[in-house]
# Entry
Amino acid sequence: MKNVATHKKSYVSFNGFGIDVAIGRADDLDRMSLVDIDMRDCPRVLDLGCGAGGHSFRMAGRGAVVTAVDRCDFSQEFRQNKESMDALAGFVEFIQGDIAELSKHIKDKSFHLGYMQRTLHYLKYPQAFQLLVYLHEIILDKLFISVTGIESEVGVDYEGRNVAIEDRFFLLHPERAEMFSIHEPVCLFSEREFVELLESAGWRVERCWLSAFGNIKVVCTH
Ligand SMILES: C[S@@+](CC[C@H](N)C(=O)[O-])C[C@H]1O[C@@H](n2cnc3c(N)ncnc32)[C@H](O)[C@@H]1O
# Structure
């Protein structure tokens, strides 16, 4: 299926899965992952919900060997970006697939680092838990991860607000859906719920903070 891109001011969104921020800019969590990559020799990095590959190519530019996964087909964008890659850069491989069935796509390879921004909330809570447990098995060191917070602007009038996290998976209020180009059901988290999920999946939360927008960002380790 061809990707349907929506352009809003300087932002691009693909197929109703929210803004692809990574192709436009690097945020603080992105920069932390790059600092970590700089300290390693050709680390293998898994980028989940990579979108058009903004951060995959940034990481490869610092020497990482990146496996990038997204349910939508970004193979054309990756092909184009690869053509302009520095000869000294690392390597990028794009795999189209559902991260809820990640083991099928990556065949139990292991990675030094994992990276997943603005994506986990598109899974139902039990799927998110299973994925994080699996990531704890295959990622040897750190996971850089963020989700959309329920207290952010995205969560205004969200139907799942008073629903137990295990059953929380709803479309946004139509106005918010339009505003943020999110037209798929989501499980929005509070900071406490997200930390509890990561810890119950085996991760140790090293740092957790809220962005000005209300995204919950975490660096976790073993
Ligand atoms: C908001 S974009 C984030 C892109 C980029 N990581 C960033 O932070 O800007 C969310 C991405 O997650 C992908 N996605 C959502 N659910 C997914 C799933 N179950 N499996 C794989 N990719 C998924 C969407 O296709 C989309 O590219």
Remarks:
- The mean pLDDT is 94.
- Strands lie at 5-8, 11-14, 44-48, 65-70, 91-96, 111-116, 139-148, 204-210, 215-221.
- The domain at 5-221 is CATH 3.40.50.150 (Rossmann fold).
